[in-house]
Write a structure and sequence with these properties.
- The protein is an alpha+beta fold.
- It has a single domain, classed as Roll (2,3-Dihydroxybiphenyl 1,2-Dioxygenase, domain 1).
- 24% of the residues lie in helices and 35% in strands.
- It has five helices and eight strands, in the order H-E-H-E-E-E-H-E-H-E-E-H-E.
- Strands 2-3-4-1-5-8-7-6 form an eight-stranded mixed β-sheet.
- A hairpin with a 6-residue loop joins strand 3 and strand 4.
- The longest helix has 10 residues.
- It is globular.
- The termini are far apart.
- The relative contact order is 0.21.
Length: 151
């Protein structure tokens, strides 16, 4: 496991979101359950390519933190594989941290020896993202730069 000092140069700001995998066909019902707690839906998108998910982002209160609900669009989706590994149940998918500079964060984490599963690339809602392999923390970590992607 890594220490806080090893991540200091990566420029982490705060928790961007906690991602939750939901079984196919259950996304809208889960959104309504979070809305019943007072969460506000702020974004909805289908993400194709290697992720193959339908996502909904819900804001927690007035702060910057979000819950991301992920429903697989196909059996090839990594989220579908995660649900299968979890005995057919949804649940925790990953934890995402916000950074100011995705390139700086990527370079720092690579220099520190983290196992990064992809180079920075386009995420949903116009973000730039990359992931750190679960073996580094015990679960998947996503690093997010808001507004870092064009188009």
């Amino acid at each position: 496991m890594r220490t806080v000092q090893e991540l200091a140069g990566a420029g982490f700001e705060f928790v961007d979101h906690v991602a939750i995998a939901v079984k196919p066909g259950e996304l809208d019902a889960q959104v309504e359950r979070y809305k019943a707690l007072g969460f506000t839906e702020v974004h909805r998108e289908e993400v194709h390519g290697k992720h193959m998910v339908r996502e909904v982002l819900l804001r927690i209160g007035e702060g910057p933190n979000l819950i991301q609900l992920l429903e697989p669009l196909s059996d090839e989706s990594p989220v579908a594989a995660q649900i299968a590994r979890n005995g057919g149940r949804g649940g925790f998918a990953h934890l995402a941290f916000r950074v100011k500079d995705i390139g700086q964060a990527y370079a720092h984490m690579k220099e520190q020896g983290f196992t990064l599963t992809q180079e920075p690339g386009r995420g949903s809602r116009g973000t730039m993202i990359f992931f750190a392999h679960p073996k580094d923390f015990g679960f998947l970590i996503e690093v997010v730069q808001e507004g870092g992607a064009d188009g």
